[in-house]
Amino acid sequence: MAFGSRMDGCGNFMKYGLFIINLIIFIGAVVIVGLTIWTIVDKSFANELLGTNLYSGAIYVLLITGILISLVSCFGCFGAIKEVRCMLMTYFIVIFIVFVTMLLGGILGYVFREKVGITMRNAMVSSIPSYGRVKSVTNAWDETQHRLQCCGIYSYRDWQNNIPDSCCKEPVEGKRQRCQLMFEQQNSFTLYQRGCLNVTVDFVKDHAAVIGGAGIGVACLMIVGMIFSIALFKLIE
Asked: Is residue 105 assigned to a domain?
């Protein structure tokens, strides 16, 4: 019995429902790709201070899966409209593999989120003696302190007698004053008072939550897409 004459209303619902779901999945995947690229390019200045590769690993996993999902969702839309069984089955298998991969990336991100405070503190403590001698560490500290408006691990006192200029607030006239002099004078108006540990931990957790939330939303749609693809596969003869 042909698809058009068997459960026509239900079949059309599955057909166009799968098309719409895949369209939404495509948009969600593009959002995930955009968020991960934004994180990699603009928000990776503190990587040297994280003390682990779990965060960057999870971001790259989500980037790759986001690209794959955007391609597979187009494949699913075409398979639904053309009512091709082999395409629907291929779509289901690929989307399931991508779903598992995304789940792995989410688990990595969650594990890192729980350990970020401890690993970052250890990395910051061990990196302070390398400031000024190792370029990557120096740049990471300067960029983190300047962009997050913080200084040291818990306060500017962590730098002792070698406080960086990046701990200085920008004065009104636009010329940065020497932080060492400000440190000696204990000037709270020109030195950032907050320590970088808690500020950076909150920063990383907030961005991980945004990307994780987008990933969870797309993953839920992927489950619905798999259900619809199997149902449509069984209706097509």
From this structure: yes
Joined tokens for residue 34: 């955009």
Contact, 211 vs 35, CB < 8 A?
Answer: yes
Backbone phi, then psi, for 69, in 5-degree steps?
A: -65, -40
Q: Where are the alpha helices (DSSP H) in the chain?
A: 8-42, 47-50, 54-82, 85-127, 135-148, 179-184, 196-235
| Alpha-carbon gap, residue 203 to 39, rounded angstroms | 11
> Identity (one letter) of the amino acid at 64?
I
pLDDT digits (tens, 9 = 90+) for 160-198: 777 788 888 765 444 444 555 655 555 556 778 888 888
Find tokens 């598992």 and name the residue. Answer: 100
151 — phi, psi (to 5°)?
-155, 125
To which residue do tokens 């909150």 refer?
202
Residue 146 in any domain: the answer is no
The two three-digit tokens of residue 208, written as one number: 């991980």
Verdict on whether the full-model pTM lies above 0.70: no
Q: Which domain holds residue 27?
A: 6-129+205-235
